[in-house]
């Protein structure tokens, strides 16, 4: 799989004006180390932020640019930064980079860390200056061993050049940055579970409020941002708000560009930096090249395993949060997966729900017990041993584990694809009900049973 390189020639020309995240990438896929990064205008934005901008002005610029979180939730970054305390007497603050990229079908942050490690470091340096944080951590998925090696080398290069450590750029500002590898848990993508894990605790989400901006790592104010989010910061500071907003397509409510991709049995699986507002059809046909010969598109997910399934007729939706929302699901990470005509949806969902059930932290009952229950029912349907009422029970679990019913967003994300799969492909689920057991009813989950 090649990153950011497939598609018609007129669609892949990258420049600083149109591709702020990827224009520095090397054609051979090797990392861009410090000398080359600085030759490509690297750390110019950091120098501008330190020399010419007040800390509050950096926060306001990011807010005005409309940058939103790129990890899937899409919370406005500048607003999140604005939640950090203004009290100057609080001199211990932390900046955390959420690099625990465990979402199935998603590998965008991996590309940035492996090939452009200094872009992330520069983004964190500017962010630390804005937030007055003296220490930062990159919480990295443990399986990303190449990313860890490249990030550690880049941190050492930046420190040797006076871009990290004490008195950065002669400003009197200190910022230390560390790469911390996790043990490989999906739940660490939730920011408070990440904080617990960083502290050496069990990776359970925390009750909110208090939010991390008030009580985070070791009880101190903390800001958590995704890799791709932080990598957008240097370009915003260097080239300004109006330019950044102009990158998005007409109709998009999200600003800038986004790393988007397609996996599955498409001709050219890959990852591309595209403006918010492109249609999914453009991504699927012009970049991913459509389905391989002999396969047809049955369904697709717009942004990871935790997003609902859509049909081929939904490909004209624009790729931004509101655009995908109009067709009934979430954009998520923006890396889509194509499901071909040979895939049985019951088997696919059983596989997905097994993953989500295994990755549950077990803290709250609906998630801990509900997800394994869904796996048991899906396994029965997959093996042709289902009973009448099983599908209704699954739909009851979709409601029981939906938004607002569990301690964090793990379970709602887990059951969203299940609900959409039953909606669009119910006959495949009904086919799993054994004829000899058609008269046997299972206990169906109802709103009164779950206390809704």
Automatic annotation (TrEMBL):
Coiled coil: none annotated. GO terms for molecular function: 4 iron, 4 sulfur cluster binding; FMN binding; metal ion binding; NAD binding; NADH dehydrogenase (ubiquinone) activity; oxidoreductase activity; quinone binding. Keywords: 4Fe-4S, Flavoprotein, FMN, Iron, Iron-sulfur, Metal-binding, NAD, Oxidoreductase, Quinone, Translocase. It comes from the Bacteria. Residues 346-391 form the NADH-ubiquinone oxidoreductase 51kDa subunit iron-sulphur binding domain. Its cofactor is [4Fe-4S] cluster; FMN. The keyword Metal-binding applies. It catalyses: a quinone + NADH + 5 H(+)(in) = a quinol + NAD(+) + 4 H(+)(out). Its EC number is 7.1.1.-. The keyword Oxidoreductase applies. InterPro entries: NADH-UbQ_OxRdtase_51kDa_CS, NADH-UbQ_OxRdtase_suF, Nuo51_FMN-bd, Nuo51_FMN-bd_sf, Nuop51_4Fe4S-bd, Nuop51_4Fe4S-bd_sf. Pfam families: Complex1_51K, NADH_4Fe-4S. Signal peptide: none annotated. It is an enzyme of class 7 (translocase). Belongs to the complex I 51 kDa subunit family. NDH-1 shuttles electrons from NADH, via FMN and iron-sulfur (Fe-S) centers, to quinones in the respiratory chain. Composed of 13 different subunits. Subunits NuoCD, E, F, and G constitute the peripheral sector of the complex. This is NADH-quinone oxidoreductase subunit F. The lineage of its organism: Bacteria, Pseudomonadati, Pseudomonadota, Gammaproteobacteria, Pseudomonadales. The gene is nuoF.
